[in-house]
Structure prediction request, 249 residues.
Amino acid sequence: MLRITAKQQLMKDIVDVLSVLTDEAKLVWGEKGLGVSVVDGSHVALLSLTIADECFETYEVEPVEIGLELGKMRDLLSLAGASDLVEMDYDDAVGAINVRVGEVHRILRGIDTNAMDNPNQPKLEFKSKATIDSEKLSRALRAAKFVGELVDLSMDKNQMTVSVTVEAGEGVNVKFESGELSELVCGSPTHSTYSLQFLDPLTRKLAGGITNEITLEFEEKYPLRLTWMSNDGGAKWTYFLAPRVMNDP
Prediction:
């Protein structure tokens, strides 16, 4: 059994960010909140989130899993006004998801969750960490995307750098000194390379008002881990992106 009410912005944030990686998601509704983990089709990126029950306006849940087509929910949410609430209820005996936005009522059929991925977060320890303004990071990655498809991230005790260089000699180099960062921890200089195909769309979404700051953790040939919070800390997000090593085909 599920019966919740949420502000339209919370539901839009959930759907918009998950949609960067996938078209469908398994929503795991527990007694204390919502949990979701998704991967992209090539299993290069993973995104997990937990949203506490207090982030919702009303929350009446007996633990249940719902498979949802994100595009259908996104279409419905596009009709919501700034002050509208989103009501959702679900009865697993019927399998129908009832969603109401204002005067609009739509019935969605859930996806079979047995056939959906159950990705687990990698258990990694990082020695380097930087926390940066989300708009500054997005702007740096957008600049890198003008030049290439791969971005080099590097860090030392004084700064973090976002850069890209291509064979034609063109390049972009954006440096953030320690004073521009909310946090900078780096025992020894490190760097790694990642795909902008995944990073650029995600950070654009985050810089659109979802979060003010993003924490980056990376080391050479390690996945990149991004973490951020929204909804006054009630929503916690973690994103992993596999590194691109130079001897990849």
User: Anything to note?
Assistant: The two ends are 48 Å apart (CA to CA). The first helix runs from residue 8 to 18.
